[in-house]
Amino acid sequence: MNEKKATRQGYGDGLVELGKKYSDVIVLDADLGNATGTLTFRNAFPERYIEAGIAEQNLIGMAAGFSKVGYVPFASSFAMFTAGRAFEIIRNAVAYSKANVKIIGSHSGITPAGDGGTHQCIEDIALMRAIPEMTVLSPCDYNQTKLLVEAAYHFQGPVYMRTSREPMPIVTAADAAVKIGKAQKLRDGNDICIVATGIMTPMAVEAAEKLEKDGIHATVLNIHTIKPLDTDAIFDSVAACDGRVLICEEANQYGGLGEAVAYKLFGKTDVKMAHVAVNDRFGQSGLTAELLDDYGITVCNILNHAKSLLN
């Protein structure tokens, strides 16, 4: 886990590889291509890059139109502006009509530390999960983002994928199998099951390695697909850990992965659950490390919750 790259960089590099193979790939951005990673695609394929300007509702509307004439559009901006500002257009023009549009929400969570609470999106998982027909992806590292870009291309229908600004350790292989709707087991144990998504997955892997030194064996399930959720994998892993499950996400505690897992486990006997997430607070400006610590998005907090469950 030495090399660090941001998932937004994996998105941009994945688009270029996709563009080389498929001429129907078209990329749209809302004046944030340098931040979202799409300028890499624009430099390679300028004739297939659309700059929509600071007009996210138009961005999504244009993407829906392109999808109706044979293109596979990838529409990108900050998560706050795709999932937030353009929500109604996503719901009605994309999901309601089952348009084959891929929507990317970059700078998700609180890691866009300098941008402050207005730009740090902790609600996008809840918003996109609630839309019928929408598939929700949350890759854990650079390698997986590249793979999920291609998987999203081959998937027929609306897709939302959240990416992050902050470079994080790479914990998956470049050629690791990834399938939409199927969880990925990164570590196998029988004491506690850690269910994580996005940048929390590398943290969960690091926490599991530290727990191992204390004689605690943790399963780490990487949930790169939040909807549809791989309930079978979660059931099996939680059962193997005597019902102890810790869910980790860089999103609000309401409406995200934690509630999705809790709903699926509801009624199961002897389930003991804990949750590491943003505690219903808006983001704020500051240094990234300070914000992560203040909001509990840390390896240390994962360790504390895991040990509390075990006790």
Structure description:
It is a single chain. With 311 residues, this protein is of the alpha/beta class. The chain has 2 domains: 4-169, Thiamin diphosphate (ThDP)-binding fold, Pyr/PP domains (Rossmann fold, 3-Layer(aba) Sandwich), CATH 3.40.50; 184-310, 3-Layer(aba) Sandwich (Rossmann fold). Helices cover 40% and strands 21% of the residues. It contains 13 helices and 14 strands. The strands form 3 sheets. A 7-stranded mixed sheet has the order 3-2-4-5-7-6-12, with helices on both faces. The protein has a 5-stranded mixed sheet with strand order 9-11-10-13-14, sandwiched between helices. The protein has a two-stranded antiparallel ribbon with strand order 1-8. Strand 10 (192-196), helix 9 (200-213) and strand 11 (218-222) form a beta-alpha-beta unit. It starts with a strand and ends with a helix. The relative contact order is 0.13.
Q: Topology, please?
A:
Blueprint: E1 4-5, H1 7-21, E2 25-29, H2 33-36, H3 39-44, E3 49-51, H4 56-67, E4 72-78, H5 79-85, H6 87-95, E5 102-106, H7 124-129, E6 135-137, H8 142-154, E7 159-162, E8 168-169, E9 184-187, E10 192-196, H9 200-213, E11 218-222, E12 225-227, H10 231-240, E13 244-252, H11 257-265, E14 272-278, H12 288-295, H13 299-310
Parallel strand pairs: 2-3, 2-4, 4-5, 5-7, 6-7, 10-11, 10-13, 13-14
Antiparallel strand pairs: 1-8, 6-12, 9-11
